[in-house]
Write a structure and sequence with these properties.
Layout lengths: L2 E4 L7 E2 L2 E2 L1 H17 L4 E5 L10 H15 L4 E4 L6 H7 L2 H4 L5 E7 L3 H8 L7 E14 L10 E2 L5 H12 L10 H7 L4 E6 L2 E9 L16 H15 L13 E9 L1 H5 L1 H10 L5 E7 L3 H5 L6 E11 L19
Parallel strand pairs: 1-4, 4-5, 11-12
Antiparallel strand pairs: 2-3, 6-13, 7-12, 7-13, 8-9, 9-10, 10-11
Helix pairs in contact: 1-2
Length: 335
């Protein structure tokens, strides 16, 4: 997760009687440009937005426009500093929703991170509300276990609307599953999407999305004795078609099996469908995310995946959101 931290704007400050509003406008625009260029996920404005607890209307306009510009890039969390008036922040809080602020978010935490989970689930004053909504697992699959059986074909322009409708109907079965629309498909590239058909009707949709050009998982170091045994393990992985691990300082070469949607009949042959997808990957590892009780979790055991169990949480700063009982299945490629 990429977080941009900024603070101490002190909008409204003058130097020797000279106003600095024009400078503040330029600086806040530069901050927004930096946030966009760095593709940040969250922006934290940590206090002293104003020079005075009773800012002028002009200063308020500069801060408001600055926050709105940042909000077009990523969610913004702003807190009052000792120069600000906290009551003023509370007074305008109801307007945040009108400006597009989300009332709550979701996140995924590794199941083995017990210390973080205990802290976040304890309801500590001052922290957001974290509420668990289900278990989730990411599967690391060796693409060497793939087998081309031509169960999938490349999506064509004529398939697009049917594929979007099929995925939408499938996504309704899960909490936190993303909406796949035409703009998203275009941004990823239609050539990365595949369809599985039965009697001329779409029975499955998936994308093979290699994100290494803009997002990488880099191994910084391994705990002893894993680092020492790494060459031996990777030799074993090549022979036994298991997931290889990158050397320290190198990135994991991985393709996401993204936006996977299968109808109930296709799920019965899910292992063969996944093996066909694996055979089409150009990286040694593929990743797939599923809710923990998904039927594929058991059937894919035959492919000897690496499992990374985790838990899905909603995160809110106000009241705890009401979330339905559907299984929590966010898209792993978007986490």
């Amino acid at each position: 997760m990429r977080i941009l931290h900024t603070s101490d704007w002190h909008v409204g400050k003058t130097i020797r009687g000279e106003p600095r509003l024009a400078e503040h406008v330029a600086v806040l625009a530069e901050i927004a440009e930096t946030a966009a260029a760095e593709a940040v996920d969250l922006i934290v404005v940590a206090g002293d937005l104003y020079e005075s607890a009773a800012p002028s209307a002009e200063a308020e306009a500069v801060v408001t426009q600055g926050l709105l510009a940042l909000r077009t890039v990523a969610p913004v969390v702003a807190i009052a500093g000792n120069h600000d008036n906290p009551a003023r922040f509370e007074a305008v809080r109801p307007l945040a929703a009108a400006a597009g602020t989300r009332p709550w978010w979701f996140t995924v935490l590794a199941a083995e991170n017990n210390a973080a989970r205990r802290l976040l689930e304890a309801g500590v004053a001052g922290l957001p509300h974290y509420r668990a909504h289900g278990d989730y697992v990411m599967l690391g699959l060796a693409t060497a276990r793939g087998a081309r059986t031509n169960l999938w074909r490349r999506a064509q322009e004529a398939d697009l609307q049917r594929a979007l409708a099929f995925h939408s109907a499938h996504a309704e079965r899960f909490q936190f599953s993303p909406v796949l629309d035409e703009a998203t498909v275009r941004s990823i590239g239609l050539e990365h999407f595949l369809v599985h058909e039965r009697a001329g009707a779409i029975a499955g949709v998936a994308a093979l999305w290699n994100q290494q050009a803009f997002k990488q998982i880099v191994a910084r170091r391994y705990r002893w004795p894993i680092g020492t045994l790494l060459p031996m393990y990777n030799g074993y992985a090549r022979i036994c078609r298991r997931v290889p691990l990158p050397a320290p300082g190198r990135s994991l070469e991985m393709t996401f099996i993204a936006f996977l949607a299968l109808d109930d009949d296709a799920l019965g042959g899910g292992t063969a469908l996944i093996r066909d997808l694996l055979s089409r990957c150009d990286t040694p590892v593929a990743a797939l995310g599923l809710h923990a009780s998904h039927p594929l979790c058991a059937s894919l055991d035959a492919l000897r995946p690496m499992r990374y169990p985790s838990r899905v949480y909603s995160v809110s700063f106000e009241s705890v959101p009401t979330v339905g009982p559907l299984p929590a299945q966010p898209e792993v490629a978007l986490l």
